[in-house]
Structure formats: C-alpha cells, structure tokens
Amino acid sequence: MTNIRPFTSSDLFQFNNINLDPYTETYGNFFYMMYLTKWPELCLVAEGPDGRIQGYILGKVEGTGDNWHGHVTALTVAPEYRRLGIARKLMQSLEEYSEKQDCHFVDLFVRVSNKVAIKMYENFGYIVYRRVLSYYSGTPTEAEEDAFDMRKALPADKEKKSLIAPKDPIRPEELE
Question: pTM of this prediction?
C-alpha cells in the first residue's frame, strides 16, 4: 500500500532511484528546500510499505486574479512503480489543494517528446494550452527542446477562460 505524505528534507537523500530517469528534471538542494519552505503542502512523496520513495510531486500556487493557479513544478515516479496510479494520486492531491485555494486552473510543462507523460496528463483532464519554444535548455550533447504548457480548469474558472489559448507559441521569457 502506497502512502502519500509530506516531502521532508531527509527525503533528498533517498530519491536518487527516481531522479535518474532522463525525463526527470533534477534540481539542486537549494531549489528543493525553497519549495519545502514556501509550499510544504504541495511537496509530497509516495512511500511504499518498505519505506522506499516511489515518486514525488513539487508544486506551488501563484499568480493574481484570473491567473491565480496551481503549478506542477515536478512530478515523477520511479520506473518500477509506474502504471500503479501513483502519479494520479499525487496530482489529485495538488489539484484538491489548488481548488481549496480558489485557483482557476492547474498548469505544468512537459517536453514535447515525452509522449507517455502527455497522454497521461490528457487522461487526467489536461489539455495542451500552448507551446513554449526552447523551454528546456540544451547541453553540449543535446539540443534545446520545446515544452507544452498543459492546463486543467478548476471550478473557480466557471467560464473556462484559462483554457483559451493564444494562437502562437511563446518563448520562456514571455511566460507570466
């Protein structure tokens, strides 16, 4: 039985099995600690009965007015625990919290090449809102990659205005 619980600083020493996935963005400890300090209720881990971390989510709430929203900064599940509903449970926790905060929508960014994740988010009710050009930095061996900005409207957005997308792709510096 998987237990969803708050992410703690000691979890930083136990999640390497998850962060080795090539689609998982890995951040420095300062970044994780900033999230744990600012948005502790949106930083969760999925823990197995053996105490092993199976996945985690980092999120935040931000914006103003109609742009007040929940944001999924990182969601990942270790390869051996995928297709067990763990990502869905983590996403539901973030969405429920965002709903209680009267957010209008939840958004996230995903690599355009990550077809499995895109399909999963679509199954969770998200749509591709827009394309963000060169969102993911390149490395000496890899090119930059575009991202899809995906969104799901929440009850506070009764008219679903948050899903009305601009026609053209944008660059990262144009993001609000």
Answer: 0.91
